[in-house]
Design a protein that fits this description.
- The complex is a heterodimer of chains A (107) and B (344).
- Chain A is mainly β and 107 residues long.
- Chain A contains no helices and 10 strands.
- In chain A, strand 9 and strand 10 form a beta hairpin.
- With 344 residues, chain B is α/β, with parallel strands linked by helices.
- Chain B has 3 domains: 87 residues, Beta-grasp domain (Ubiquitin-like (UB roll), Roll); 93 residues, Beta Barrel (Elongation Factor Tu (Ef-tu), domain 3), CATH 2.40.30.10; 133 residues, Nucleotide-binding domain of ferredoxin-NADP reductase (FNR) module (Rossmann fold), CATH 3.40.50.
- Helices cover 18% and strands 33% of the residues of chain B.
- In chain B, the strands form 4 sheets. Chain B has a 6-stranded antiparallel beta sheet with strand order 11-10-13-8-9-12.
- In chain B, helix 7 links the parallel strand 18 and strand 19.
- Classes of the chains: A mainly beta (107), B alpha/beta (344).
- Chains A and B meet through loops of A and helix 7 of B.
Amino acid sequence: MTRRIVCRKSDVPANGLKECEGEGGVKVVIANSGNEYFACQAQCPHEEIPLCEGIFDGSVLTCHQHLWQWDIRTGAPQGIAEKPLQRFEVKVEGDEIVVGDALPEAG
Amino acid sequence: MQVRVTAKDRSFAYEAGQGEKVLYAGLRAGVSLPYECATGTCGTCKARLVSGEVEDLWPEAPGKKSFKPGRNEFLMCQCTAKTDLEIEVARAAPAFAPEECPVGPRAGTIRSVRALTHDVTAIDVALELPCDFEAGQFMAVNAPGLRGARGYSMVNFERGAQGLEFVIKKKPGGGFSEWLFSDRAPGSRIELVGPLGKATFTPGTEKNLLVIAGGSGIAGMMSILKRAAAADHFSRFKGWVFFGVRTMKDAFYLRELSALRSENLEITVVLSDEDVPAQARADWPQLKFERGFVHEAAKRAMAGKYDNVRAYLAGPPPAVDAAIRFLLVEAKLKPDAIRYDRFS
């Protein structure tokens, strides 16, 4: 099991996004939704646009380039999106956000 | 030269002429290859070269920024085939639908150049052969002696158009716009490829229309509004136009917009850099005026009016992005209700 502190809670804006480096230099995006944090792949599976520049309302993440959307909780594609989002395990330990293994694809 | 393509959905082949861009040849053959700007900036038309040789006419194209070394990728809109090619495209590339306007190379002569403001000009191009396009589409335009094409939306709308009208914003150091503003432009022959773009309006769209345009982005919106008005769209549906410019000195097409205005079509000019002069309201009684950023004015005015709305966006990328943001997050529009082409 991989495990890496990627940032502090205060680094992620409320209901916002922050790009961080996970295990092995893999880039991830941390999303905040209230007291919860989620981690997903940093680039859009469509055109490799950085998802940290995307639009996040606390539950749906939208890539700003072509408006592909996903449910941040499951990574499931919504609307016109054709591919799911790769998610990672997240734990909050005190003020630190810890990213673990990749999670299975949304069924 | 033959181009054999393996796309996400199917495999096919087409012929590309000497010096013809791989993308344009495919579109001319009726294949919906992926593209957005078609002029080297967005990177959407990237393909992988499996075999053969291409000539890259713009090696520094900004659209290559997502390329990774060793993948043998190229931009179809900037490369010509030097030999037969075998290429891979990661996205689907279906055949054109029967109702889509054919795409091809076109030629025309600049008939007139008319200043709209101190830094915006309308050019009128007489086509050698008539052309069909949809309201909201654009052409990739090439001027003599200048490298690289630029995308410009048509302002006019008609079937079998003999001429095309474009709006050009003068950019300091922009070779293309400076050439167009010079006295060499009138009478010059220019080459175009198109029509291009998917942010179109066709009658039969049973939607209220929201248009948010900044500066010269109003060009394609004029085509959409003219087509919608001609099809009597605004007798059954509502329309809201928000046209953002810096000051009244930068505003244009106010006469045309006043003529389009009707009971169901409301038009607001939004000034970002000055308070609305009293004279503006007196001169243009058909139009509304507001101070602020165009997307913010739209957000204020549209609250609670998003039922059955389709939004068309055009203008500087930051303004388009800001509009997308509030339309998704606050207005809760679905992505397929938001139409725009990224080609500037």
